[in-house]
Amino acid sequence: MFSDEIYSRINFSETVNTVALTTVADAEKVLSNGHFDISTLPILLSAAAADYLEDMAQIAVQRTRERFGNTVLLYAPLYLSNECSNSCLYCGFSLINKDIHRRTLALSEVEREFIAIQKAGIKHILLVSGEHPAKVNLEYLKEALQIGHTYAASLGIEIYPLETEGYKLLSNSGAETLTIYQETYEERRYGEVHPAGRKKDFFWRLSAPDRAGEAGFRGIGVGSLLGLNENTAADVYFAALHADYLRSRYWRTSINISLPRLKYAANGFNTYAVSDAEYVQYILALRLVLGDVGITLSTREESSLRNNLIGLGITQMSAASKTEPGGYSDEYSGQSGATPQFQVEDSRSVEEVTLMLKSKGIEGLIKDNWRLDFS
Length: 375
Prior knowledge:
There is one protein chain. The protein is α/β, with parallel strands linked by helices. The chain has helices spanning 2-5, 12-20, 24-33, 41-45, 53-68, 107-120, 138-148, 164-172, 187-193, 202-206, 208-215, 232-249, 276-289, 303-309, 327-333, 350-359, and strands spanning 71-81, 124-129, 154-158, 177-179, 219-223, 254-258, 294-297, 316-318, 363-367, 370-372. Mean pLDDT is 94; it is low at 369-375.
């Protein structure tokens, strides 16, 4: 388990200090040497390396092309429910939010969502829900996956943590990938922002990717929610440690990492700002160190930044996303939708995103070698 083999042996506060004490000379030495691994990541994430983004970008472009070619996989999230039994201080779905429109899709509504996403041109679909096992149980998820087989080339899940047997059930039902974010890897801060609910258990969540690996998932995605912790670089470092461990431990499983950025939070929660320049630096550093790990980019980011990050390490990105249950089919029916989880910053259509990629010499993939090509 990552928690025993890696996490328990590396002190979060010491990592914060290592990043802070990095000098320009340290950064120059690492970049001139050209050898990058997890031990050099704190240096690449430091403020001392911020003046070398162009050098990092040139290396990232080369490494991305060598490992992943000129392709980016496009996917869409399908939100099943915004009901949640946790009290996360920052989340729009949190139990403490009493005034939002809650909704769990009926299976007939799930099918309408699949149809709407398919019409938009996406066939890689991630099923997402708030963390409410009583509302979104395993049988419901199993049936949703079975419906999705008709419309999707590939299905993933982003739900509450499960036991290994639960993950095996969903894997056998057709879920190929699991995405689960630790949010923050600092145990103290995690406890502050998750005061109640099952999600309060830091190590139960931390060990979920291991249980998914044991269950045989084809792909696992991890990451940090930037903006929760003032020690952002240390959080990115621990997310990278997690991804690197999973890549080595479950070598038949493809590993992805993502750094969603929390810009606007519910309940007046104060976030820690992460600048665009810092965000770009983190993506570049991850690509230099984690050569075989995919990097996913969310529609939380504005279109201009997403455009500029193409080719610099990104291998997957969402397109035309809706972050509320019923968001895709409601758009066509004119019904009143549920409250979304977060504000989408890049609202371009699948066609617009694909044309942008094409202008940069990048193919937008539906799944693996399936290609979206709008002429």
